[in-house]
Amino acid sequence: MSQHKSTGEYEIYFSSDIAPTLSAIITHIESQNDSLIDLRVERPSLEDRFLEITTTGAMQ
């Protein structure tokens, strides 16, 4: 996981390797005896990726 944001209503996690991140999230939810209400997996748009590369100078 590369970044985490909390809005108060929900959590947002950023990761380049989704499988271990999802596994950790689900394990944590189960360990807290909580339930998962909604799950979304999204990829950054081309514009988001372009801005990330050009504003940070990070080429991957």
What does this structure look like?
This protein has a two-stranded antiparallel ribbon with strand order 1-2. By secondary structure, it is an alpha+beta fold. The model has no long low-confidence stretch (mean pLDDT 86). 0% of the residues are buried. It is built from 2 helices and 2 strands; from the N terminus they run E-E-H-H. It has helices at residues 18-31, 46-56; strands at 3-6, 11-14.
Counting DSSP H or I runs of 4 or more residues, the number of helices is 2
Q: How helical, in percent, are the residues?
A: 40-55%
* Overall 3D form: elongated
- SSE string, helix = H, strand = E? EEHH
Domain unit count: 1
Strand content: 5-15%
Total strands: 2
Order of strands, widest sheet: 1-2
Task: Give the low-confidence spans.
Answer: none
Gyration radius, rounded = 14 Å
Mean pLDDT: 86
Distance between the termini: 17 Å
Give the helix/strand class. alpha+beta
Note the main sheet: 2 strands, antiparallel
Question: What are the salient characteristics of this protein?
Answer:
alpha+beta; 2 helices; 42% helix
Could you give a short description of this structure?
It contains two helices and two strands, in the order E-E-H-H. The protein is an alpha+beta fold. It has one domain.
